Amino acid sequence: MSSSTAPPEGGARAAGRAMALRGLLVACYLLLAHGAGVGQDPRLAALALGDIVALVLLAPLLGLRPWAWGVLALAGAGLARLAATRYALTPLLLVPPAIVAFVGFGFARTLAPGQVPLITRMVLAMDDLAPGELEPALLRYTRRLTLAWALLLGGLVIFNLVLAAVAVPEGLLAAFGWASPWPISEGQWAVAAHVGNYGVIAAFMLVEFRLRQRRFPGRYTGFLHFLRRLAGLGPAFWHGVLR
């Protein structure tokens, strides 16, 4: 790939800082949301929701856009009032399916005609190849794998929506006054929605990696080598993917 496409050094540093801050916000959200669900704490739920607002607005916030800081301030005021009620946990139930849907859409949209599938982009970037230089078998595999990820994440969206609906006492069905057919506590929801989601994703990654090693031997010395190469794509690559 041509070096002319590489971002300026200052831009790369800024992208790296933004990526690090985004990772910190994600980690804080997971801790806050899990604590809110297990402890039935509306204050932690409101903080978790505020964390998501900051994550969504991160780019314009770092760009010091007044409208973004205004939206954050309004959201903070609204969430402060919400924290004083019993309803803060209800919108929090919708965050996991929304996040998974966002990521799943990132895979699915690259399967449209004229697009390069997301996994194909990753392999091209890791191998420093142009799209036409990838061997046909690997091209077909990466397209199918992108589809598999989109379908898996779509299934997790449905799973998380069901969890959000049947949780008690603040689940979606309960919010409308309907009895839950399979009541689960919000502590159980927190474990299933957070630990369960990432457990399924991690298991899929490991199983797929073993399959890839058999289909295309010699590409990676092990799973950690693959993860290092994936991380080596750098913030600029992921910033381009997320746009």
Can you describe what's shown?
- The protein has 243 residues and is mainly α.
- 74% of the residues lie in helices and 2% in strands.
- It has twelve helices and two strands.
- It has a two-stranded parallel sheet.
- Helix 9 links the parallel strand 1 and strand 2.
- Helix 1 (9-39) crosses helix 10 (186-215) and helix 7 (118-127) packs across helix 8 (136-166).
- The radius of gyration is 20 Å and the shape is globular.
- Residues 1-7 have low confidence and may be disordered.
Question: Brief overview, please?
Answer:
By secondary structure, this protein is mainly alpha-helical.
What's the SSE blueprint?
Elements: H1 9-39, H2 42-56, H3 58-62, H4 66-83, H5 89-92, H6 95-108, H7 118-127, H8 136-166, E1 167-168, H9 172-175, E2 184-185, H10 186-215, H11 223-231, H12 234-242
Parallel strand pairs: 1-2
Helix pairs in contact: 1-2, 1-10, 1-12, 2-4, 6-8, 7-8, 8-10
Structural descriptors:
243 residues, mainly alpha, 2 domains, two-stranded parallel ribbon, 2 strands, globular, disordered N terminus
